[in-house]
Amino acid sequence: MHRPPIIALLIVPFLATLFGIYQVFTGSIGIAEISLLVVSVILTEYGVTFGYHRMVVHKSFEPRPVLKAIVLALGSMSFQGSVINWASVHTKHHAHSDQDGDPHSPTLSGFIHAHFEWLLEMHDSELESIKEKWGARYAKDPMIAWFSSTFLLWSAVGLILPASIGFLTNGWDGALNWFIWGGLMRIFVTSHVTWSVNSVCHYIGRKMFVTTDHSRNNFLIGLLALGEGWHNNHHAFPASAFHGLRWWQIDLTGLSIRIYERLGLVRKVVRIPAGLLEKRRLESKRTALKVQSLALTKEL
Ligand SMILES: [Zn+2]
Ligand SMILES: [Zn+2]
Fold first, then answer.
1. How far is CA 205 from CA 21, 208, 265, in A?
2. In this structure, is residue 98 part of a structural domain?
3. Start-to-end CA span in the chain (Å)
4. How much distance in Å is there from the Cα of 133 to the middle of ligand 1?
5. Which residue range(s) make up the domain with 48?
6. What confidence tens digit (pLDDT) does each residue in 50-62 have?
């Protein structure tokens, strides 16, 4: 994507969100618009967490084709780039996490850079070379390639659909309100939630496993990003279909995978054996204690 659309993507949804907050205080919107925002955020974010991330990049399960098509359509409506672009950049992130070459690392280049500045700085030529190196594996899948090439169409659908429903229910006023709440404000919320996984979850939170990066588990982002905030777990076991690895680590995307598995909509779900999890956890605890005592010795 060129720079002007990215700047528009940052500024326009932000201004629309300010306007939406003003509408709440003036009482010019109701429960319908607020519900629309919540539902549309969950649906398109889910397209990214379940579809783009766990299904496409990490191959954590095999979906039925109809489910695969639905989530790829939802992810493509999220305004986070085409599935192949997203998957290529994310694959590079895993290959270089918090090291030279990581496209977004708050410990290397600062929180704001990891949150969204990296998007502004990435030139088309750089994205093309990332796609060339990391994206070829995704382009081989005809459905993924098709959704990637029709990405702009799906982005437009994500804006036109709520506006059309708003028009049918309440004329031009309805069209404008639903465009703002189901389109622009939805983009604002989903963008910042996903970006927080890249920024907050490599900066604030706890590590359950020792990894070669600074990934963290963050309860709030875990909740908002439908399970993706258990990011240290994810870096420790990237292929796992479940990012929440304790009962209290709420992982709504993971919960949906369990349900689909029972319904026969997904198969070959990747699970990390309990023994291996415990072994890694104990090893991590021992390493953390060693580091702590070394630090104490240095202080003395
Ligand atoms: Zn990460
Ligand atoms: Zn990942």
1. 29, 10, 34
2. yes
3. 53
4. 19
5. 3-207
6. 999 999 999 999 9
Confirm whether 212 is domain-assigned. no
DSSP annotation string for 185-205 = HHHHHHHHHHHHHHHGGGTSS
* Separation in Å, CA 47 to CA 160, 216, 233, 234, 284: 18, 23, 21, 18, 33
Q: Which tokens go with 32? A: 């319908």
How many Å lie between the centroid of ligand 2 and the Cα of residue 103?
13
Residue 183 and residue 162 in contact, taking contact as beta carbons nearer than 8 Å? yes
Report how far ligand 2's centroid is from the alpha carbon of 131 (Å).
Answer: 16
27 Cα to the center of ligand 2, angstroms? 41
Q: Report the number of distinct structural domains present in the chain.
A: 1
Distance 149 CA to ligand 2 centre (A): 22
Please give the distance, rounded to the nearest whole angstrom, from the Cα atom of residue 254 to the centre of ligand 2. Answer: 14
Q: Is 6's pLDDT higher than 80?
A: no
Mean pLDDT of the chain: 94
Is 133 inside a domain boundary? yes
Alpha helix stretches (DSSP H) within 29-150 = 31-46, 65-76, 83-95, 106-109, 111-112, 118-121, 124-134, 136-139, 142-149
Model's pTM, two decimal places? 0.93
Alpha carbons within 13 angstroms on the beta-carbon side of residue 244 total 21
Encoded amino acid at 4, one letter: P
Residue 108 CA to ligand 1 center (angstroms) comes to: 13
For residue 183, report the distance from its CA to the centre of ligand 2, in Å: 26
Q: How far is the CA of 149 from the centre of ligand 1 (A)?
A: 26
Q: Let me know if residue 7 belongs to a domain.
A: yes
Cα radius of gyration rounded to whole Å, the chain: 20
What distance in angstroms lies between residue 93's CA and the mean position of ligand 2's atoms?
A: 8
Structure letter (DSSP) for residue 266: E
